[in-house]
Specification:
Phosphorylase Kinase, domain 1, 3 domains, six-stranded antiparallel beta sheet, Transferase(Phosphotransferase), domain 1, about 50% helix, about 450 residues, about 10% strand, alpha+beta
């Protein structure tokens, strides 16, 4: 059954008019005959419907976002299927999407849009597992009754899109909106990551101000081939230009997170100066190095003072002592710099983007080298630092073991519906098991839980 105006859908929704058609779905304005209120019906695979496996995939994936209670997410009211066509019932936004205002936004509106969309993305990215939108663009950002902006069409994962592409005709086979797609999406490893959404948001803000996307219809594909990020022309603040440029960085790891973008926008709206995370003061950027330099100076001064006050010391012995101090200081500088790099890697892994366990493993290997190096420093100098490094190692082991448990669970979840995805999660779990002793960690965890239960019972 094709969708038609003035007909009843699923014995409840009176179809009034078609609002829009996307790669995989149609959106209709309808009236809920039970409540007599207008709603938006988003109907997937409207021409062909899905098989049983496809319907099961939809039901399972949408269950992850059914409780998306956030002011900047257009939460579905209801999910069901009719004639093998999955559909969502959504609140009807009278003001529609921001598509009609492309090229008309003021700077203040751009900051409001950035804050609201980034806030919604931060909520989605913070879920476990993270939800990557994969299609941020003006069509998928609605305007609420009070002028707030809300993301729609979230929860449509790569798994769902793959299911739809297999079921639908070539006319609907596009995998995304190219003009808003990040450069890394055109590479061999195009697995969705949070940074993809940040790029799409930057392209959307750019378009709302200028009337066109940064690279026209070709998106990040042109950028991947070496094109530079275009300068935002017009009477806009340097802060806004800088934020958009950061969102459009070719390297996904150089883009800000959604949470950072929300804070930047809030700061700008309050009339304050934005302190960008990657543009700290010299001391903040080189804190450990500065502290190591001060430590070296203090030690050197102490050595010189001691030599002056005790001038009867043999000059050869003094020279040997100074060389030893310099050697220890050199090793300590390397350790402090490596520790900073390891902590940054852990912070990056904590974002739980695609392949985050590889970042943890890299940090774990680097930490092993650092612990080995500190053995070369006399015990009275390295004792405290060694304890800190052991604590970091324990934290890394915990994060890796938790990731291992998560991958094993996901492997079992997809074992029947998608064996290929299941095997991929098994492989990721195996890489972790090759680095850390999973059974030893589980044993310690069990012992800790038992001790806690005994303590509670007492």
């Amino acid at each position: 059954m094709n969708m038609e105006e003035k007909t009843l859908f699923h014995d409840r929704y009176f179809m009034e008019r078609l609002l829009g058609r996307g790669n995989f779905s149609e959106v209709w304005l309808a009236k809920d005959t039970k409540t007599d209120i207008p709603v938006a019906l988003k109907i997937y695979a409207p021409a062909t419907g899905l098989d049983d496996q496809g319907l099961n995939v939809f039901a399972r994936e949408f269950s992850l976002v059914v409780n998306a209670n956030h002011k900047n997410l257009l939460k579905p009211l209801y999910y069901d299927s009719f004639e093998r066509k999955p559909y969502l019932v959504l609140p009807f936004c009278k003001k529609g999407s921001i598509l009609k205002d492309v090229g008309k936004f003021t700077e203040e509106q751009a900051w409001h849009l950035l804050r609201d969309v980034a806030s919604g993305l931060a909520w989605l990215h913070g879920m476990n597992p993270p939800v990557i939108h994969q299609d941020i663009k003006p069509d998928n950002i609605m305007v609420g009754d009070i002028g707030n902006y809300m993301i729609t069409d979230f929860g449509v994962s790569s798994h769902i899109k793959s299911t739809l592409r297999k079921s639908m005709s070539a006319a609907f086979s596009s995998a995304g909106t190219v003009a808003y797609m990040a450069p890394e999406r055109f590479g061999t490893d195009n697995s969705p990551i949070m940074a993809n959404d940040i790029y799409s948001l930057g392209a959307t803000i750019y378009e709302m101000l200028t009337g066109d996307t940064p690279f026209g219809d070709h998106g990040g594909l042109i950028q991947k081939k070496g094109a530079e990020i275009p300068v935002l022309k017009g009477d806009y603040s340097d802060q806004l230009k800088k934020v958009i440029t950061k969102c459009l960085k070719t390297n996904p790891w150089e883009r800000p997170t959604a949470e950072q973008l929300e804070k930047y926008a809030e700061t700008a709206l309050n009339g304050d100066h934005i302190q960008f995370v990657d543009e700290k003061s010299f001391f903040s950027r080189n804190k450990n190095l500065c502290l190591a330099a001060v430590f070296a100076i203090v030690i050197a001064c102490f050595g010189v003072g001691y030599w002056i006050n005790k001038n009867n010391r043999d000059s050869a012995e003094a020279k040997q002592h100074l060389q030893l101090v310099q050697k220890n200081d050199s090793i300590m500088k390397c350790i402090l710099l490596s520790e900073k790099k390891i902590l940054q890697q852990i912070e990056l892994g904590d974002k739980h983007e695609e392949g985050y366990e590889e970042v943890y493993i890299k940090a774990y290997d680097e930490l092993a080298k650092v612990i080995s190096s500190i053995e070369k420093i006399p015990s009275e100098i390295e004792k405290g630092k060694k304890s800190e490094l052991y604590a970091i190692r324990d934290t890394l082991v915990t994060k890796l073991c938790q990731a291992h448990s998560n991958f094993i669970s996901k492997s079992k979840l997809f074992e029947q519906d998608d064996p290929e995805v299941s095997e991929e999660f098994k492989t990721r779990a195996a890489k972790i098991a090759n680095r850390v002793d999973i059974s030893k960690y589980n044993e310690k965890t069990t012992q800790a839980e038992n001790r806690e239960q005994i303590s509670d019972s007492i």
